[in-house]
Design a protein that fits this description.
The structure is a single chain. α5 links the parallel β5 and β6. The protein is of the alpha/beta class. Helix content is 30%, strand content 25%. Among the domains are: 1-167, 3-Layer(aba) Sandwich (Rossmann fold), CATH 3.40.50; 317-396, Luciferase, domain 3; 399-488, ANL, C-terminal domain (GMP Synthetase, Chain A, domain 3).
Length: 501
């Protein structure tokens, strides 16, 4: 394979190697590898016609859209930095993203809602259909492989999402390293119900380009009730999954007794699977091997298990990616011996460039930047065995995983407080014996009204399933919310909703 330097080199090489084989499928719409490459060149010309130049930002506001992969590659061709934002990001959260990244152009499937917000932030907004016109462009590399090509927004310890800056070199290396471990094949049909705003959903496109596999982009219903039918319809051989999707698959397979799937591989990211869920998955889909993964947006993947490697090393989340290094450090920054718990610190070409417009946070998480590669302090704690396999123990901040997505408790609390009529809000993240997050709110609103009003503040997948309304928050002697008392109130919800005195 020729040397790959820029993100669009992935699609150009795929067009040469796999040509007329299908690359992207969404419902009845399809594109071959050659068509994706050609479309990305045309769209690169369209972006230039719109006045975008090297370093400008482009926001794609969509969960899944057939044009998104081509637009990502098009932006790469002309040096534009692209950010994909989930279609559920609206109102206050969308305004935050646009204020933060200052795009020149927003492309959306919801123009009536998005255009006024974009225009108030100094950005033009167009519908995806507007991209149907425009000329082809053939141009040499714009910039260098160390230039930023993508901003990936992720929850953080602040009240609103932050953007991880990803360069061409980092993204290409990460994609190739992940493919080296997962080994997608040219005849694979990869089904992903994950939105392209989620980095692992986006990387399915890159893995397909590297392997020649065809990537089927699902929609929201195909991550839940429609999952089994989608896997059968697409004749999927690979499922890119998160725990909530995996649990749905198990339930659906049990209802479809006797109906077989073609899956040969299931990958898991987003959060760890319990041993019971893993056993149920193997019983439900005996044809599929399982690869467990552990990662952060800041480095894409920390580690990946070999296929079914968890059978030999229960509890492990795998080995570091090829060409990378992970160590566990104590509080003084000293490397720990195998079996000793410390903070995972990651080094390698896949460690991203830092946070967009967050110098203090970048300094905190990427404190050493004087070597060949940045050093990422993950905030995740665990240990390594003598063979270098990682075992996850926990986090030090308020980030948690809900339905496979990273969520910040601070962000959820801030969104609840923005609801008119809510005086105080405290979120309890999932913990031992508590599968999902729960929100406590001091308000005269009903629990349902609070959760409904939050839909205009943050993405729906970040809104907790449960809200408990209180007259007042219990406080510690230091005047802080007493989370232990709140946790003790998390009894099963009564009929009629959660309201407590």
């Amino acid at each position: 394979m020729p040397e790959l330097q820029f993100l669009h080199d992935l699609v150009d090489t795929a067009a040469e190697r796999f040509g007329s084989a299908l690359a992207i499928v969404r419902g009845a719409a399809t594109m071959t590898h050659r068509q994706v490459a050609a479309e990305s060149r045309r769209l690169a010309g369209w972006l230039l016609e719109r006045g975008l130049v090297r370093g400008d930002r482009l926001v794609l506001h969509a969960s899944t859209h057939l044009s998104v992969p081509s637009l990502v590659y098009a932006a790469s061709r002309v040096g534009v930095v692209v950010a994909i934002v989930h279609g559920q990001v609206r109102d206050h959260a969308l305004r935050h993203v646009l204020t933060d990244c200052m795009p020149k152009l927003v492309i959306t499937s919801d123009l009536a809602h998005v255009a006024p917000i974009a225009e108030s932030e100094g950005a033009a907004a167009v519908d995806f259909d507007a991209c149907a016109t425009g000329g082809d462009v053939v141009c040499g590399p714009v910039g260098t492989e160390m230039d930023a090509c993508c901003l990936i927004y992720t929850s953080g310890s602040t009240s609103m999402p932050k953007a991880v800056v990803c360069t061409h070199q980092q993204m290409v290396f990460a994609a190739r390293a992940v493919q080296a471990e997962l080994a997608y094949q040219a005849d694979d049909r990869v089904f992903t119900p994950l939105p392209l705003s989620f980095d692992y959903g986006l990387y399915q496109v890159f893995l397909g380009a590297l392997s020649g596999a065809e990537v089927h982009m699902g929609h929201a219903a195909e991550a839940s009730a429609g999952l089994f039918a989608a896997l059968q319809r697409t004749r999927a051989t690979v499922l890119a999954s998160v725990p909530s999707v995996t649990e749905t698959l198990i339930r659906l397979v049990r209802r479809k007794s006797g109906e077989a799937l073609r899956l040969r591989l299931i990958t898991n990211t987003g959060a760890a699977l319990s041993e019971a869920t893993i056993a149920d998955l193997r019983a439900a889909v005996p044809s599929a091997r399982l690869q467990l993964m552990f990662g952060l947006t800041e480095c894409k993947r920390v580690s990946i298990m070999p296929p079914d490697g968890d059978l030999l090393r229960p509890g492990s989340c795998g080995r570091p990616l090829p060409g990378t290094e992970v160590v566990a450090l104590d509080d003084e920054g000293r490397a720990l011996a195998p079996g000793e718990v410390g903070e995972f610190v990651v080094r390698g070409p896949h460690v991203m460039a830092g946070y967009w417009r967050r110098p203090e946070l970048t300094e905190q998480r990427f404190p050493r930047r004087d070597g060949l590669f940045p050093e990422l302090h993950t905030g995740d704690y665990g240990w390594l065995d003598e063979d270098g396999y990682l075992y996850f123990a926990g986090r030090r901040d308020d980030i948690y995983k809900e339905r496979g997505f990273r969520v910040s408790g601070t962000e959820v609390e801030a969104a609840a407080r923005r609801v008119a009529g809510v005086d105080e809000a405290v979120l309890l993240a999932p913990a031992a014996g508590r599968e999902h997050a729960a929100l406590f709110a001091v308000t005269e609103l009903t629990p349902a009204a609070v959760l409904t009003a939050m839909k205009g503040q943050i993405e729906e997948f970040k809104i907790p399933a449960r809200c408990i309304v209180l007259e007042r928050l219990p406080l510690t002697q230091h005047g802080k919310p007493d989370r232990k008392v709140l946790a003790a109130r998390l009894v099963p919800a009564p009929s009629g909703g959660d309201r407590a005195s």
